[in-house]
Hints:
Layout: E1 10-14, E2 17-21, H1 24-32, H2 34-37
Antiparallel strand pairs: 1-2
Amino acid sequence: MVVIEETVRYSFKHEGVTYYFCSQYCLDQFARNPSRYVKGK
């Protein structure tokens, strides 16, 4: 899914990187356990 940064409503900053999401649900899932989704850092 493509999310356009300029118009996105949902974002979350983790370890200095801002991640953008298509919905509150996706943001909540990421926020609960970012390391599950961010690999190799």
